[in-house]
Amino acid sequence: MTATTTPARPSTAAELSELVGTELGPTPWYEISQDRVNAFADATDDHQWIHLDTERAAASDLGGTIAHGLLSLSLGPHLSGQLLSLSGFAHSLNYGYNKVRFPAPVPVGSRVRMRLGVVSSDEVPGGIQVTMSQVLEREGSDKPVMVAESIARVVADA
């Protein structure tokens, strides 16, 4: 993939297609705080102790609380939006994911950032389907903490 650090701002299907094979990023570092993990647990009703019980988690093999894998995934729209702006179109929608993996934990207090690869851009009825690779990396780790292949549907202005 070709790499770039400039946020991409395509406004046509042709400009979006030109980004295929391009890696965007990384984003600035984003801190994962215990307050954010607690709020995510409340929002999803996922109150597993490894995310919330700091004393019990400290005694575990992980050495402390960790973020939910789905919290990492849910950062995708915010972080990818810093790398690829689709504001030149009428709107875009999250269409889903082909693959999602969480190869390493995200300890609370760590910082993460995203790299975004534009895998494909295909015209579909009513718009454009864009497939992107999202890689979330943790500061100081050689292994990514989240790898996902996301799909968006983009609708051009009429």
From TrEMBL:
<feature type="domain" description="MaoC-like">
    <location>
        <begin position="19"/>
        <end position="133"/>
    </location>
</feature>
<dbReference type="InterPro" id="IPR002539">
    <property type="entry name" value="MaoC-like_dom"/>
</dbReference>
<protein>
    <submittedName>
        <fullName>Putative enoyl-CoA hydratase</fullName>
    </submittedName>
</protein>
<dbReference type="Pfam" id="PF01575">
    <property type="entry name" value="MaoC_dehydratas"/>
</dbReference>
<comment type="similarity">
    <text>Belongs to the enoyl-CoA hydratase/isomerase family.</text>
</comment>
<dbReference type="InterPro" id="IPR029069">
    <property type="entry name" value="HotDog_dom_sf"/>
</dbReference>
<dbReference type="InterPro" id="IPR039375">
    <property type="entry name" value="NodN-like"/>
</dbReference>
